[in-house]
Design brief:
By secondary structure, the protein is mainly alpha-helical. The protein has helices at residues 9-17, 32-52, 56-79, 85-108, 114-138, 145-148, 162-180, 189-212, and strands spanning 156-158, 217-219. It has a two-stranded antiparallel ribbon with strand order 1-2.
């Protein structure tokens, strides 16, 4: 309908009544830190194969590579502002895949006890299920299968607790020590057993901390009016 002044009233009313649509936040996920993290993920099957086939020299070399790339990608992300929400997911995921690979294969070779392996893997399975649930509940609408797996759409970022960082360091120390123990010229079975008990305790403690912590993750707004999202904090292990 047109008013006497010649303006289109119907079209204007429709425009005024329709809600304003704001763009979905996206970020650059193709960064060098993320690529280094992916290389650690790719190296995990080779690491597992080397342990199962008693090639502990190769396994030790891959562990050194994993440790160095973990340090480098964290430095690059902080120094050159290459942080991303995907990085806060990939980095702990790479650590967990590394830990899972070491836990399973070292238990298969009787280098760590099976009950300890069950504790470590059980905690990680429960935290992984919780992460899938948080991703779904925090994903901006519409919640589709494609958008769920599109990690350029941030929804929530993980914030490791203090004890989880300590636990990650102790677990890596245990797995690294167990991996190199077959090629060491001395017997380290006593300190290795003591470390196993300590890791069992910190693993249970860190899993419980995520249940009671209020800042274990942060939901990110799906839209923005004032510019791009604030970069996430530096990545750390979980």
């Amino acid at each position: 309908m047109t008013s006497p002044a010649g303006t289109t009233v119907g079209k204007r009313s429709d425009e005024e009544s329709s809600p304003e649509r704001t763009p979905t936040i996206r970020e650059n996920i193709y960064t060098l830190p993320n690529l280094l993290t992916l290389s650690r993920i790719v190296a995990c099957p080779v690491l597992g194969w080397s342990i199962v086939h008693d090639d502990f020299y190769l396994a030790t070399g891959l562990l050194v590579y994993a440790g160095l790339t973990d340090l480098v990608d964290g430095f690059l992300a902080r120094r050159f502002n290459m942080r991303s929400v995907l990085g806060t997911i990939l980095d702990p995921a790479a650590d967990k895949l590394l830990m899972t690979t070491l836990t399973i294969t070292l238990a298969m070779k009787d280098l760590i006890p099976v009950p300890l392996a069950v504790i470590i893997l059980g905690r990680d399975v429960l935290l992984s299920l919780a992460a899938f649930y948080i991703r779904y509940t925090s994903l901006p609408a519409p919640k589709t299968f494609t958008r769920y797996w599109d990690f350029s759409i941030p929804s929530a970022e993980v914030r490791p607790t203090g004890i989880s960082k300590v636990n990650t360091a102790l677990q890596l120390l245990l797995m690294g020590t167990a991996t190199v123990s077959p090629i060491l010229p001395v017997d380290i079975s006593f300190p290795l057993h003591a470390l196993q008990w300590v890791v069992a305790g910190t693993t249970i403690w860190s899993g419980a901390s995520y249940v009671f912590a209020r800042d274990g993750f942060r939901v990110i707004s799906s839209t923005t009016r004032n510019g791009p999202p604030t970069p996430p904090p530096p990545r750390t292990g979980s």
